[in-house]
Amino acid sequence: MILVIDIGNTSIKMAVMDQGNIYKVLRTDNKSFESLIQKTTKQYPAIEEAAICNVGSFPEELMELLRTTFKTVFKVNNSIKLPFNNHYQSLTLGNDRIALVAGALSTASKNNALLVIDAGTCVTYDYVDEKENYFGGAISPGLRLRYESLHNFTANLPLLHSEHVTDIIGNTTQTSIHSGVVNGLSQEIKGVIKQYKKSNKNLEVFITGGDSELLIKQLKNRFFATPFLMLHGIHYLYLFNKNL
Question: Which of 4, 130, 197, 239 is the most buried (most CB within 10 A)?
Fold first, then answer.
């Protein structure tokens, strides 16, 4: 039994896992992290290891807490062994993108190309060909960043929160913003999928992330909606490196 931890830009997600199965998913932040770790290990005393993927701000004292609580702490980074051939041209490939690609590969059909879309603070697109070669993809502003940009860089536009859009035509300032932001990102995602499918008829598309549920309502493409793809990817990377 292992505790898998995904430290994102806005929150921390944890899962109690065993043999690839998720028993419990928890959300927290830096402030409540220590108490939740204590509560979780008390409830699941069989947990002896932790696997962590960090792209957010995580204090060193909390990292030390993990080291003293668990026998082993596995960290996703650029130095671990990967279950795909990495052709990215720089050493700055995000740990989250590594884990997402691994998660998709752990569940995808063999000999199919993959496009992994993570709709969070940023929207990332990651492409893997049918021979498990990873080449990169794209990074785009997510819904929250788009709403905040309209508010922060104009004099009069209000700060709104994302919601489902049913009409392309906005007839108020608020509905115009929602249409521009939500429909705009939806059309971006549709366009990216269409571009990749031109050369990959058997492309498998995975979408995950905090805004994926809302965006799925706007999209009509066939894809795998997987809210726990990151957690599965972290766990898969742990197992892949443990068994080498």
Answer: 4
